[in-house]
Design brief:
The protein is α+β, with helices and mostly antiparallel strands. It has 7 helices and 20 strands.
Length: about 300
């Protein structure tokens, strides 16, 4: 069955790139509503934006969606990953600013809030998108691929010059709370030199050592170090889940990312939906539903530092 929240949950904090402080609420929604954002600070024009792949605009270092009236919300990927990872199919997200709060740089606080609010089953079947044939996109050395599978699996490979990160590879079957346990606490990361360059260009104005893993070659500058030895690749998998959630329905298949980022994942969705033979929309039976992210998740799945 489809899920929504049992009650409203509220967050507040600064945006990573704009530094603008915002208040965000996730409200329950009815079956087949989907995920929508509402800019409550905009008093004219259409302030509702569907969380859909076709509404993504080009943006540096984050995922930004907008509507035809120009209303937009950026840095939605960590929240979208939390919703997908908790099996939330329907919700209205109200935010009174242009960017989703970054919180601790991961999905953990969103997940904890969702699970505190509770998950409410709805009287409607979950409809999923089955990947029926491989689809792949490239950008230089980076590539991303979706292919058929029996559940939903993410594999990611990264390769960074900073020796504190280096090469990392991880694969994870996303069923039964795996996202909450294995990925949700992994924070965004960057090089110190990149942080300085972004700030000089008017970005990362809300970034601190408390909401990102900052590295300087072989040094981890953020207090407490890494939460996982391979936290960077886990965060890239978190981002991928959030960006793929913009498909509009859970996916059944296998995603592989090699040095991929937000823009390439969105290009992959564009190519996927450009081919009517690449996907099939089907209603889940119980066996298939049990293979989806978030099915059966509970507060017991939360890591200790969530």
């Amino acid at each position: 069955m489809q899920n929504t929240l049992s009650s409203t949950v509220t967050f507040s904090g600064s945006g990573l790139h704009s530094g603008t402080r915002a208040r965000l609420r996730i409200l329950p929604a009815s079956a087949n509503y989907g995920i929508w954002f509402k800019r409550t600070d905009l008093k004219s024009g259409d302030n509702l934006i569907a969380a859909q792949w076709r509404n993504v605009e080009a943006s540096r270092l984050c995922t930004l969606i907008s509507n035809e009236d120009g209303a937009s919300v950026s840095t939605i990927e960590h929240l979208m990953a939390a919703l997908a990872g908790c099996g939330i199919h329907n919700a209205l997200i109200e935010v009174d600013g242009p960017e989703v709060p970054i919180l601790d740089g991961s999905s953990s606080r969103f997940v904890a809030g969702i699970l505190r609010a509770g998950i409410q089953p709805l009287d409607a079947p979950v409809r999923v998108l089955e990947i029926l044939k491989p689809v792949e996109v490239h950008d230089g050395l980076a590539w991303a691929r979706l292919e058929p599978g029996v559940g939903f699996e993410i594999r990611f490979h990264i390769d960074f010059d900073a020796s504190a990160i280096g090469r990392q590879d991880r694969v994870l079957n996303m069923a039964n709370g795996a996202f909450v346990r294995e990925l949700s606490t992994s924070r965004t990361f960057c090089n110190l030199a990149d942080v300085n360059a972004m700030r000089a260009g008017g970005l990362a104005l809300g970034g601190t050592y408390d909401n990102a893993v900052v590295v300087d070659d072989d040094k981890i500058l953020s207090p407490g170090g890494l939460r996982h030895a391979d936290e960077p690749v886990r965060h890239k998998m978190l981002d991928a889940l959030g960006d793929l959630a913009l498909a509009g329905a859970p996916l059944i298949g296998r995603f592989t990312g090699h040095r991929a980022g937000h823009a390439l994942t969105n290009r992959l969705l564009h190519k996927l939906f450009a081919d009517p033979d690449a996907t099939g929309l089907v209603s889940c039976d119980r066996e298939m539903a049990n293979r989806l992210p978030g099915m059966g998740v509970s507060r017991a799945d939360l890591p200790l530092f969530a």
